[in-house]
Write a structure and sequence with these properties.
With 386 residues, this protein is α+β, with helices and mostly antiparallel strands. The chain folds into four domains: 99 residues, conserved putative lor/sdh protein from methanococcus maripaludis s2 fold; 106 residues, Beta Barrel (Elongation Factor Tu (Ef-tu), domain 3); 43 residues, no CATH class; 61 residues, Helix Hairpins (Orthogonal Bundle). The protein has six helices and 20 strands. Helix 2 runs antiparallel to helix 3. The chain is rod-shaped, with a radius of gyration of 41 Å.
Length: 386
Amino acid sequence: MKKKSIFSALIAVVVLASCGKKQEQAQGPQGPVPFPVQTIVKQDAVVYQDYTANLEGQQNVEIRPKVNGFIQKIYVDEGQVVRKGQLLFKLETQTQNQDAAAAQATVKAAQVEVDRLKPLVDRKIISEVQLETAKARLAQAKSAYGAIAANIGFGTIVSPVNGVIGSLPFREGSLVSSTSEMPLTTVSDTKIVRAYFSMNEKQLLFFNKTFKGATTAEKLKAAPEVSLLLVDGSEYDQKGKIATMNGLVNPTTGTTQFRAEFNNPQGLLRSGSSGIVRLPIVQKEVMLVPQNAIFEVQGKQTLYVVEKGNKVKSRIVTTNGTSELNFIVTDGIQEGEMVVIEGASKLRDDMEIVPQDVQKQAPAAANEQAPATKDSVTTTSTPAKK
């Protein structure tokens, strides 16, 4: 029994000693860990500036009646494509027809009176004053008849432009007038769609500095084509151009309105919808750093730079926009320095690492797959044209 106790104690000592060695091995110092790095090189980059926009047709014409009356017939439906001159509405004109008949009778009577007085004036039986008075009454009667006839014509309402019918708030039998708050409908010519967006004063100043020109027209001509992002996040397949820029800054909002125009051959864009106008701006000779490399410490953007002896040091940087998945860094690092682009949460100042330059590894891998291909590096985020 005593021997068994001694034997058990020896086993326990051996096990404890073995565990102690394993813990020492686990807690012992490890060698430097590899981290992906990138050498900073100045290059051109395309920065996109996005602006929320409201879309409207090239022409949005509110259709309103010029005379009062009941809607006798509606010839179109909501969303229907119409041509210029196409009949839209017919207003009831029966009462006006009666007025026109009475006015026409008055004209005939006035004409008869003029014809009766002419020979009397010629024979100097009556004075010319009476004839001139009769002629004035005839002119007045014709004017009244013309006004009534015009009102009858206004009862037939046609489309003034090519376009698409909007909502129809009134139904047949509704009484409408020229003073009605709502129009009968709206006809939108959407062959060309206008995107209205605004820039604040800082953005406007940057725009004016970036695109050279002595006049607004020259600056707009120098500006590149813009893209339109739709509400589902997709990019519209037609490029647009900034057509106008308001010459004044709105003192209330501090913004200036711009208008870009997009062709709409398929009728995909509708008046009243929204989107995002994307303006590409090329920045020359900038330093790009992957977004994964930069993290925030107390609200300041920070990254790790590889210094002498492959030891890392945190450094605060200043950025100015993004290009694809990169930050544009304007201050805090120099061209030629090496930064850690992944795993920043595992690093501490003065920690030694094994740098793995991704820029050198990528061409090597590409050469293994396609030795004859030589790719150029691009930093623009311009989508491929469809």
